[in-house]
From TrEMBL:
<dbReference type="Pfam" id="PF00561">
    <property type="entry name" value="Abhydrolase_1"/>
</dbReference>
<feature type="domain" description="Peptidase S33 tripeptidyl aminopeptidase-like C-terminal">
    <location>
        <begin position="400"/>
        <end position="500"/>
    </location>
</feature>
<feature type="domain" description="AB hydrolase-1">
    <location>
        <begin position="113"/>
        <end position="284"/>
    </location>
</feature>
<protein>
    <submittedName>
        <fullName>Unannotated protein</fullName>
    </submittedName>
</protein>
<dbReference type="GO" id="GO:0016787">
    <property type="term" value="F:hydrolase activity"/>
</dbReference>
<dbReference type="Pfam" id="PF08386">
    <property type="entry name" value="Abhydrolase_4"/>
</dbReference>
<comment type="similarity">
    <text>Belongs to the peptidase S33 family.</text>
</comment>
<feature type="compositionally biased region" description="Polar residues">
    <location>
        <begin position="35"/>
        <end position="56"/>
    </location>
</feature>
<dbReference type="InterPro" id="IPR051601">
    <property type="entry name" value="Serine_prot/Carboxylest_S33"/>
</dbReference>
<dbReference type="InterPro" id="IPR013595">
    <property type="entry name" value="Pept_S33_TAP-like_C"/>
</dbReference>
<keyword id="KW-0732">Signal</keyword>
<dbReference type="InterPro" id="IPR000073">
    <property type="entry name" value="AB_hydrolase_1"/>
</dbReference>
<feature type="region of interest" description="Disordered">
    <location>
        <begin position="35"/>
        <end position="67"/>
    </location>
</feature>
<keyword id="KW-0378">Hydrolase</keyword>
<dbReference type="InterPro" id="IPR029058">
    <property type="entry name" value="AB_hydrolase_fold"/>
</dbReference>
């Protein structure tokens, strides 16, 4: 579980829904994408992306904006870009863009990305994620990254539900064999679907697309606000084009210096800590408000029940994997215990529907394969089922409750048909203007240490600390929102690293 969340009465939850959605939008631009499908053997191919290819200074194609039914006052367009940036005259794919024009004195365009990998920028912008201060001064823009939604989506998700329905903590060799086979089935389905697309959906590819979008919008310096995995896109862009930036905010930070296993182990620890915080808050609130006396005990009791036999049936079935996902889902927002407690209380009575509904807020099987396609190839994962089992065992030591679920969600990476594009590395971005790096001290998905490390690695990084729970802070914490707005509009850079509560 990366910073993606397919993942509602408060502003915080409204933004969360936008950040975590990887939903397909119906009424918008048609990318008319073209790519060459190819069948794969069991051998991996190399991801051809590199940081060396330049993006032309002239637009790759003209943007023909038209009204679209994505959100209030939205317009959509499609930008044609090379499938392979190292072959700029080769096959093209379409990137689906959405914008809302500034309502006041315009500074330029502000491009936002909600995270993922697999998050839809169209859905994100349609959820009104930015303050009125920003929408007055900027044309707000987002896009479905390549492989996602309306931008030449990766379409190999038929076998994903079977994988995610299995127990992520196998009890015996037959259960482990079934899990391994399900992971291989997903990776083979994707290899057979469109290998040429999978070879070119890395974060570096997306960063080059972002530069092409900037040029197509009028070649103004980039203003960028990236959430969660969007912070990795922002850092990749800053690494390639540091002098093309006017302002950049990274909120809910992914540390690109961490490898595949390092990141997921850190995330596992953060999810576990967030769950324990929910346990404490439930105890403080009491059973009448929380629904159960002890959230941890209730979770473990429901887990024991679904280990014996799942609750419900069909698409509404609740097994160990869905239970863990429900708990992880509620870690993403500060009052998650208020949803998890009553759902666990119902589970203790044999009704798993509320817990399954929480898990379903996280799941989007169509977005999963874009997510896996990026994560499996950005940095090297364990490269065999046996190596992956050792990693999953390590994750369970970090969190007996959630380690198996976090690790095995990405089990297809062990047999993914495309090799990793690069190894992990820190980004320094010499020559970039000040970049705001926002981190929540109790973020369950992108641990606070990530923000500290990235702010120190960037030559112009400025750390903004939010002493809060939940994933990302802009739009949920007034102090952070005011600092970010002032920076984006006025280029006001805090003189010292501010702390918000």
């Amino acid at each position: 579980m990366n910073s993606r969340s397919f993942r509602s009465t408060t502003v915080a939850r409204g933004l969360l829904a936008g950040l975590l959605a990887a939903l397909l939008i119906g009424a918008c631009a048609d990318p008319n994408a073209s790519s060459t499908a190819s069948k794969a053997s069991n051998q991996r191919v190399s991801d051809g992306s590199s940081g060396q290819t330049s993006v032309p200074d002239q637009p790759m194609s003209e943007l023909d904006w038209s009204d679209c039914n994505v959100g209030r006052d939205t317009e959509c367009a499609t930008l044609q870009v090379p499938l392979d940036w190292e072959e700029p005259t080769g096959p093209k794919i379409g990137l689906a863009l959405v914008r809302v024009l500034a309502t006041g004195d315009r500074i330029g365009s502000l491009i936002g990305n909600p995270g993922g990998p697999g998050g839809s920028g169209l859905e994100f912008l349609g959820s009104d994620p930015f303050s009125q201060q920003l929408t007055r001064r900027f044309d707000t823009v987002s896009w479905d990254p390549r492989g996602v939604g309306k931008s030449t989506p990766v379409t190999c998700s038929d076998s994903v539900p079977d994988l995610l329905a299995l127990d992520p903590d196998p009890d015996d060799s037959s259960e482990q064999a079934a899990l391994d086979q399900a992971g291989e089935t997903v990776s083979q389905e994707c290899a057979d679907s469109d290998l040429s697309l999978l070879e070119h959906i890395s974060t570096v590819d997306v960063a080059k697309d972002l530069e092409a979008i900037r040029v197509a919008l009028g070649d103004e310096p980039l203003n960028f606000l990236g959430f969660s995995y969007g912070t990795q896109i922002g850092q990749a862009y800053a690494d390639l084009y540091p002098t093309k930036i006017r302002s950049m905010v990274l909120d809910g930070v992914v540390d690109p210096s961490l490898g595949f296993t390092e990141f997921l182990l850190g995330q596992t620890a953060a999810f576990d800590a967030s769950f324990e915080e929910n346990v404490s808050r439930c105890s403080e609130a009491g059973r009448d408000e929380c629904g159960v006396r002890d959230l941890g005990e209730a979770y473990d009791q429901v887990h024991s029940l679904v280990e014996v036999a799942p609750m419900g049936s069909g698409d509404g079935e609740l097994g160990p994997g869905e239970l863990a996902t429900a708990a992880i889902m509620t870690a993403y927002y500060e009052d998650g215990w208020q949803d998890l407690g009553p759902a666990l209380a119902a589970g203790l009575e044999g009704d798993g529907s509320e817990l399954r509904a929480l898990a379903d807020q996280y799941y989007d099987f169509g977005g999963y394969t874009a997510y896996a396609g990026v994560v499996c190839t950005d940095t090297p994962p364990p490269d065999s089922p046996a190596a992956y089992r050792r990693f999953a065992d390590e994750a369970r030591k970090v969190s007996p409750r959630f380690g198996g679920s976090v690790a095995n969600e990405l089990l297809p990476c062990a047999t993914w048909p495309v090799e990793a594009a690069a190894t992990a590395k820190a980004v320094t971005a010499p020559g970039a203007p000040p970049i705001l790096v926002v981190g929540n001290t109790r973020d369950p998905a992108t641990p606070y240490d990530n923000a500290v490390t990235v702010s120190e690695s960037l030559e112009s990084g400025v750390l903004v600390t939010a002493e809060i729970s939940g994933h990302t802070a802009y739009g949920t914490n007034q102090c952070v929102t005011e600092i970010v707005d002032d920076y984006l509009i006025n280029l006001a850079v805090p003189q010292v690293d501010p702390r918000c509560t």
